[in-house]
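Run log // design_07
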């Protein structure tokens, strides 16, 4: 599970495709003993905030739910890998990578500055709501949806019209991106309160660790927020019982986030459970100032397919 810090595998092993299409780095948690798996999850728990850890565990358990309850033939459902790039250190740079179909965390840690960055990262969910083994209802993206609609609802009718007339962009793993902003609502169009709500939404990806790291990352984004463009399509009310979900993108000099409802179950159907639209979401976070995801090696790893969000994470030749 230990790679050199600059090993090119780091740039090729994160994706929103299933593990059967894009090989992940490191050890498969499914191959570990219970004690080893507990230790691996303890790394994640120590790295992430309580809220982010709950989201990640909810994502992973959702894949396990699909494995046990859906009619999917995808054999890699529920498989997640962990790898270290560089020796874990409190003085030099190293990285924790955790990946599976609906999760691709790249956490770069710089021991000399205590800085942590999460770009590029993929968070996805399918289904959006499920019942765990204890009978509890789990909704991993509820916090993200709540923040997204808090921002949307804060806008005036005129601002909402500008937002929804914009171009929602997608820049997935494997894509070589120019991070063009397109049209939409800009940070300069927002009030101070609206800007804060937008930053709180972005914190779901940018600030998954401690408060100090989150504040530092958001401060960099806030410095160029006036030229950051937000676009939105789909539903305008947080009601997963109707419609096909939402799509939005946030693109600026220091941040790129894409959120897209997948219009298809990718074969993971469960009776009475939505596994499309609201029930199947892929998201991407990348940092235009510090992005290795568009490398030639990443292109090669995905066969040039780019891992487009809109295809449900499955190459066209496989449905």
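design_07 sequence
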């Amino acid at each position: 599970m230990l790679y050199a810090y600059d090993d090119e595998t780091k740039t090729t092993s994160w994706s929103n495709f299933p593990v059967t299409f894009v090989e992940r780095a490191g050890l498969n948690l499914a191959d570990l003993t219970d004690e080893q798996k507990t230790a691996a999850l303890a790394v994640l728990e120590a790295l992430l905030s309580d809220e982010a850890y709950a989201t990640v565990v909810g994502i992973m358990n959702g894949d396990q739910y699909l494995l046990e309850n859906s009619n999917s033939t995808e054999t890699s459902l529920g498989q997640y890998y962990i790898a270290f790039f560089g020796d874990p250190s409190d003085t030099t740079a190293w990285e924790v990578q955790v990946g599976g179909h609906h999760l691709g965390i790249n956490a770069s840690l710089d021991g000399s500055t205590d800085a942590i960055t999460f770009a590029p990262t993929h968070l996805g969910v399918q289904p959006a709501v499920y019942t765990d083994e204890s009978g509890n209802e789990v909704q991993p993206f509820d916090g993200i949806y709540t923040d997204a609609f808090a921002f949307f609802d804060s806008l005036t009718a005129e601002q909402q019209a500008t937002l929804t007339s914009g171009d929602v962009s997608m820049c997935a793993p494997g894509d070589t991106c120019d991070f063009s902003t397109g049209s939409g609502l800009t940070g300069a169009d927002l009030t101070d309160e609206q800007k804060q709500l937008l930053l709180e939404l972005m914190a779901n990806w940018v600030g998954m660790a401690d408060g100090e790291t989150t504040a530092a990352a958001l401060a960099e984004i806030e410095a160029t927020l006036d030229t950051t463009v937000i676009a939105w399509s789909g539903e305008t009310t947080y009601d997963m019982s109707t419609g096909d979900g939402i799509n939005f993108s946030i693109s600026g000099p220091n941040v790129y986030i894409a959120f897209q409802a997948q219009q298809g179950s990718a074969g993971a159907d469960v009776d009475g459970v939505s596994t499309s639209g609201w029930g199947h979401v892929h998201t991407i976070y990348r940092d235009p100032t510090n992005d290795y995801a568009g490398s030639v090696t990443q292109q090669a790893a995905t066969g040039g397919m780019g891992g487009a969000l809109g295809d449900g994470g499955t190459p066209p030749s496989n449905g």
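The helical segments are 9-12, 34-47, 50-69, 142-154, 157-164, 192-206, 211-223, 296-301.
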